[in-house]
Specification:
The chain folds into two domains: 220 residues, YjeF N-terminal domain (Rossmann fold, 3-Layer(aba) Sandwich); 281 residues, Ribokinase (UDP-N-acetylmuramoyl-L-alanine:D-glutamate ligase, 3-Layer(aba) Sandwich), CATH 3.40.1190. The chain is built from 20 helices and 20 strands. The strands form three sheets. The protein has an eleven-stranded mixed β-sheet, with helices on both faces. Strands 4-3-2-5-6-7-8 form a seven-stranded parallel β-sheet, sandwiched between helices. The chain has a two-stranded antiparallel ribbon with strand order 13-14. Helix 5 runs parallel beside helix 6, helix 10 packs parallel to helix 11 and helix 19 crosses helix 20. The chain binds ligand LP7C6HRI and potassium ion.
């Protein structure tokens, strides 16, 4: 599903109106009605509403909601923030309809009127937040900030129209104080700010509603941001035919594990196998070979002589490079240790290996010392940093990255020509062509040791089976998140282990292929 930036949404609106002749007031009517439908599905006439509108079109949507709720017999109070003379265009049309109907709208201009807002919410406790939408452009201050604080403190249930007011539509930045919604009804397409943290924290349940914008208007512009959904993933999963053998499902080579970090190798290997890889080879230090072998007997291990205990020496690089000619993918990094040996192996591999390479964890840590090696690459590279690894790769502060996830991932992908999988509460995938794919599946239970090794294994397994690296990353991130959601549904988030992800992985893939779990139906 496509995702929009503020300017893109404005342009789509404009094309709908000017090229296809759908009047703006019709779009606003549809927007309001879509919110009303969501309300009547969930609230009977006993519920009372406080509707808080801004001066822009988001407020206009709020006026439409007010008219329809009034018509259906709901009790409500309507507030507009600031000088009502500033209301114009379609919002003004809807404001005037309300005044012609004799429906009172209170202006919030000062602290006295703010008290009225507070009193209204105490007795009419379901709040419709129509303060700011995609037009929010600066820090929320003064009276707006106070109003938002009152909403957050006294509302029993808040429904935000389009995006919680105070969240930036482009990137999920927080502009002062955001409304903490229980539900957000976003219009036409999700906004990036609905999906990316920290803003995504404030949506509550996110619902996407059609407002009658012609598909043609959306197709007229090239949208580069996408939400990963089940349809993209289902197309991506490799099919399995009857007359096949293990060679039909690809060969993956993995360099993982070191003394004390055998678990990372085991998790990555098991995940690649559970994803359907036909043949898997693991390069591992000879002293830990038996541990890995016991943990995952299905893998072919290649025990390599060590120069230091548990660390693969660089003297085996020729074998790794030669073997890659027979394989479909090479993954490097999980639990390898941040060693000079690994740095040398990665450099050589980047220069000489021409199959797709997945680089994770310590592989990224060693590369952060010398990123120029990316420019020597002979094949497609997928890197899977979490925010700390991204900070080392970019020399940026973690906080700086956290507030600009999409831009940071995109800039890095374009600059170094690699596919970036920036892992977090929402995972951002950026392609070297500047496309973005956002995953919102998954839960905080997955913030646990080994979870990233599982993701590396899934990406590797999908590339082994013939998926293009970008498609493999997109599919893997969703499958990984969905698997976490299935584990959390059964066991809760607290005790979720990376090993649980491995165990549930086959069921996730089965349910996606067979379309038999409702958890797959949401994005
Ligand atoms: N296709 C659609 O999705 C449609 C969406 N609609 C709704 O319209 C809004 C966007 O409307 P717009 O008028 O562009 O902006 P806003 O209503 O978000 O508010 C802008 C308003 O507020 C002022 N402003 C901006 N930042 C601040 C601030 N920090 N403090 C105070 N004031 C601020 C700004 O100057 C404007 O006056 C979209 O989200 C949908 O809800 C349409 O209804 C139909 C089509
Ligand atoms: K809003």
């Amino acid at each position: 599903m496509k995702v929009v930036l503020n300017d893109e949404m404005r342009l789509i609106d404009k094309i709908s109106m000017e090229k296809y002749g759908v009047p703006g007031v019709v779009l606003m009517e549809n927007a309001g009605v879509s919110v009303v439908n969501e309300i009547i599905d969930n609230f009977n006439l006993d519920y009372k509403f406080t509707i808080v509108c801004g001066k822009g079109n988001n407020g206009g949507d709020g006026f439409v909601v007010a008219r329809h709720l009034h018509n259906k017999g709901y009790k409500l109070n309507i507030f507009v923030l600031g000088d009502k003379k500033a209301i114009k265009g379609d919002a003004l049309i809807n404001y005037e309809i309300l005044t012609k109907l004799g429906i009172g709208i209170k202006e919030i201009k000062n602290d006295d009127t703010l008290i009225q807002l507070k009193e209204s919410i105490i007795s009419y406790p379901i709040v419709i937040d129509a303060l700011f939408g995609t037009g929010l452009s600066k820090e929320v201050q003064g009276i707006s900030k106070k109003a938002i604080n009152i909403i957050n403190k006294y509302s029993k249930y808040t429904i935000s129209i389009d995006i919680p007011s105070g969240v930036g539509g482009n990137d999920g930045k927080i502009f002062g104080t955001p409304v903490e919604a229980n539900k957000t009804v976003t219009l036409c397409l999700p906004k990036c700010g609905n999906l990316v943290y920290p803003g995504a924290e404030y949506n509550g349940k996110l619902v996407i509603k059609d407002i009658g914008i012609p598909n043609e208007a959306i197709e007229d512009i090239e949208l580069k941001n996408n939400l990963i959904d089940i349809d993209i993933v289902r197309q991506g999963l490799p099919s399995r035919k009857k007359d096949t053998h293990k060679g039909s499902y690809g060969k993956a080579n993995i360099i993982a594990g070191s003394f004390g970090m055998t678990g990372a190798a085991i998790l990555a290997c098991k995940s690649a196998l559970r994803t359907g890889t036909g043949l898997l080879k693991l390069y591992v230090g000879e002293s830990i070979n038996h541990i890995v072998k016991t943990g995952v007997p299905e893998v072919i291990t290649v025990p390599l002589q060590e120069m230091r205990k548990g660390v693969i020496g660089i003297n085996h690089i020729e074998k790794i490079i030669k073997d890659s000619k027979e394989a479909n993918v090479l993954a490097i990094g999980p639990g390898c240790g941040n060693t000079s040996e690994l740095a040398e192996i990665i450099k050589q591999v980047l220069v000489k290996v021409d199959i797709p390479i997945v680089i994770d964890a310590d592989g990224l840590n060693v590369l952060s010392r010398d990123k120029e090696w990316f420019l020597e690459k002979k094949s497609k590279i997928v890197i899977t940093p979490h925010i700390g690894e991204m900070s080392r790769l970019t020399n940026m502060d973690i906080e700086e990255i956290r507030y600009d996830l999409i831009k940071v991932a995109k800039d890095f992908a374009i600059k170094w020509g690699v596919i970036v999988v920036l892992k977090g509460a929402s995972t951002i995938i950026a392609s070297p062509e500047g496309e973005i794919f956002i995953n919102v599946k998954g839960n905080p239970g997955m913030a646990t040791a080994g979870s990233g090794d599982v993701l590396t294994g899934i990406i590797t397994g999908l590339i082994a089976q013939g998926l293009e690296p970008l498609k493999a990353a997109i599919t893997a991130v969703y499958v990984h998140g969905l698997t976490g959601d299935k584990v959390a549904r059964d066991k809760g988030e607290y005790g979720l282990l990376a090993g649980d992800l491995v165990e549930y992985l086959p069921y996730t893939i089965k349910d996606i292929v067979e379309d038999n779990d409702s958890i797959c139906k949401t994005f």
